[in-house]
Design a protein that fits this description.
17 helices, elongated, alpha+beta
């Protein structure tokens, strides 16, 4: 009889065959059934056998099938027949529980097709196992509802809504899309949503409508990154308008130096400032657009929303007809969203994680081929090692000194208390703020998830 290479204590291995790709292992359940599974009567009688094939973890690069010689029983009391339960076997499919757990974790890191090939099952089975695994994670893992919530967009196969915790730079949810109905459904099921104070978002009407409906007390703030980004985009349109009139060499130079133009003027080094000066002097509209871009950024240096409003009015007057069309979208957005843009100056809440989120988007887009959205979502939300957690200990309470008249009684009570079972202290509470964006990006780039 071969050794029990399965390392499953409830099974006895009786035979082993192998080929280039697979192990075929014959086994039986060690302990016979002693009671009817229906009426619990003792000593059911044997009533035949059948062979059941159960898949197990791959070993030595080979797929594993366990052929269990399963006993059938008939109860002497209720006359019902049944097969013996198979220990360590998943209730929903002919697989060991350890294989199902392994497949769920692997499906976060790998494509369904590669797992199906390694195990010897269909992609549909891997998808079903993965779905159960994610559902289990969502039942057991709860992220703290952020007081400062961010709603942004991430492009995974198509645009998705991403919910973030601004104070902790973490992702707490990835929505299937960014429609109003989807955001409303998410917010409706959110525990503790009454504690949300601020919501930073981009200028997307469905977000605004959903927040005003579900979080009427929360303050909506248009994230300044999305506003100043429009100024950069306007300048880029001016830069690109020159491409047709340039020689191939000049065109390559203008494309190469675009990062200098997108950089803030006070961040330029001497070499970059010299390059920028050459372009702006030779191309007046580009110079005008760059200056308007820089001046628009300075609006956010204002100390109050009234000052910001005055700076914008002065800036708009300075937008000359030559470049007004390129800045039209920015001007219109400011007018349409002005109360929410100006809210930033009363409550300077911004998605400080934006650059980290952009890095994550680029990494996920590279990995996107071969993955479903569900797998990408699980990779972002539930990857081990990416959670940002904090342990909250109970508040320290100063001991109370007894009154002089009751000290004798207190001493007697303390003696009695020592003789009584000790009351456990209030346990510490662990808070999970979600997946840290920077850590998540690093782990993915390192191939650790």
């Amino acid at each position: 009889m071969p050794a029990n290479i399965l390392n499953l204590p409830f099974y006895a291995v009786t035979a082993l065959q192998e080929n280039d790709h697979d192990y075929h292992i014959d086994a039986g359940v060690r302990q016979a059934v002693t009671h009817c599974i229906h009426c619990k009567a003792s000593n059911p009688q044997g009533f035949g056998r059948r062979e059941q094939m159960v898949k197990d973890l791959p070993m030595h690069g080979k797929r594993v099938g366990i052929y269990v010689n399963t006993r059938r029983y008939r109860c002497r009391e209720c006359a019902k027949t049944f097969y013996e339960p198979l220990p360590d076997t998943d209730e929903k499919r002919a697989m060991t529980t350890r294989l199902v757990a392994w497949m769920g974790k692997q499906a976060v890191r790998r494509t369904f097709a590669s797992i199906a090939d390694e195990v010897g099952c269909t992609e549909f089975t891997v998808r079903a196992v993965f779905s159960d695994y994610v559902n289990q994670l969502e039942r057991t893992i709860r992220f703290e509802t952020p007081k400062w919530m961010g709603i942004d967009e991430i492009h995974l196969i198509k645009p998705r809504g991403v919910i973030t915790n601004i104070q902790n730079n973490t992702v707490v949810e990835l929505l299937h899309n960014r429609n109003k109905e989807t955001v409303i459904k998410y917010l409706a099921g959110l525990q503790g949503k009454e504690a949300i104070q601020y919501v930073a978002m981009d200028m997307w009407q469905p977000y605004k409508d959903a927040i005003e409906l579900m979080l009427p007390k929360a303050k909506i703030i248009i994230d300044k990154f999305h506003v100043v980004k429009m100024a950069n985009e306007a300048m880029e349109r001016v830069r690109k308008s020159y491409r047709e009139s340039l020689t191939p060499k000049q065109r390559r130079g203008l494309m190469h130096d675009r990062f200098v133009m997108l950089k803030r003027e006070h961040d330029l080094n001497d070499e970059e400032a010299l390059k920028l000066s050459g372009w702006l002097k030779n191309y007046p509209e580009l110079g005008m657009a760059y200056r308007l871009k820089e001046d628009f950024f300075k609006i956010y240096d204002a100390k109050t929303k009234e000052e910001a409003l005055r700076r914008f009015a002065a800036w708009e007057i300075a937008v000359m007809p030559d470049v007004r069309d390129t800045f039209h979208d920015l001007i219109r957005a400011w007018r349409n969203w002005q109360p929410y843009i100006l809210a930033y100056f009363d409550h300077p809440v911004t998605n400080a994680y934006t650059e980290s989120l952009n890095n994550l988007i680029r990494v996920m887009n590279r990995l996107g081929r071969g993955y479903s959205f569900e797998a990408l979502r699980a990779k972002i939300l539930f990857s081990e090692g990416a959670f940002k957690k904090q342990t909250i200990r109970p508040k320290f309470e100063r001991r109370r000194e007894p009154e002089r008249a009751t000290r004798d009684f207190a001493m007697a009570y303390m003696c009695l208390e020592r003789a009584m079972p000790h009351q456990p202290a209030e346990p510490a509470r662990e808070i999970n703020y979600g997946a840290d964006i920077s850590t998540l990006t690093r782990l993915i780039e390192a191939g650790e998830i």
